[in-house]
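Let us work through a complete example step by step.
Step 1: write down the sequence.
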Amino acid sequence: MKLTCTQENLNKGLSLVSHIANKNNNLPILNNVLLKADKNGLLLVTTDLEIGIKAFVRGKVDEEGEFTVGAKLLNDFVSLVPKENIDLELKENTLKIKSKNQKTNIKGLEAEDFPLIPEIEKENEVELNMNDFKTALSQLVFSASLDSSRLEINAVFFNFLKNELVLAATDSYRLAEKKLVINSGQEKELIVPLKTIQELLRILNDQNNQALKIYFNENQIMFVFDGVELISRVVSGKYPDYQQIIPKSFNTEAKFAVNQLVPAIKSAALFCKPGINDVRLSIANNQIFPLGHHMFYQSVIIGKSKVAIRDQTQQMFRLVCHQQTGYTAFHGEILRFLRRYILIYAIRLFNHIILRSFHSFDFFHIFLNRHKPVDNANSAQPRHRDRHIRFGHRIHI
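Step 2: predict the structure and record it as tokens.
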């Protein structure tokens, strides 16, 4: 094997593939990156037996061949080489790397011991805009369960329909769903591991906007873009039927500006009792009041508020946050993607509140909660019906 390529191209390719080549004492070959040179250029391949990544690097190939070396070592070394041409040559199980002012030898392992990555027939093809897909995954990924023992929800649900792709994720305390318009020839439901989605997002964040293609079969899914292929197994089993817990009607609806509500919640949260994170949202008279544990509050004017209840008195939403979600789930990642205005829906008969973008109904986020009346007998304020929204109630599916 003998070839020449630029430092920029080789460094970019290695940074894409080397991340999943972690330290593996049982199979040392998995710590390596496969370098495969042919007439088209250089192909870089890594795998952890669940995910496989291929990246094509343009270069001039003088001799074809293949070899494996430590992925992290090669990536770290190439990143320090000046931006100039690099010569790679294989001699006696040693990869010789030469640049203008440097010469380096790296020992490796024979390519024949490197695991084969299964190929997917490119029949079921779905093409998406990369930025739209990346945004959709970013909206969903934090709702997926981190419990690796629950494989079905330690994942993101892909539901390929005729004209749309429905993505969903839940950790049984919250649920997010996003819809994308597509042209799909086959309807299919797949459960893609969270680890795969996180690795895909890591790679996509460094890519320019372009077309992204998805291929899939019964056992695998592959994402293809700009000379990169990421292939992953899918989780066997059936995703929970989350549609049954989505309320169809509400008795409380409010619209407010995200850039006003988020700072107010953050400032109110400063006065929360540590470990409880008790933030209340009080909606009344076209205003919303986030209140901390010690009753500090800050007023935020909202564009529109509609509260349909019998007594027409003030409504109180108490966000008693689960330790794994906290009020940060309310003002954090999700609000970043809900544009200028957000809608909040609640209903007494259901244990949920729903957040939607005012501008688009293709995405929603549900917090699963419990509620019960509170008697403020010791308060100097007039008594009113108090609605509690507690993060931490599981989805029963």
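Step 3: interpret the result. The mean pLDDT is 78.
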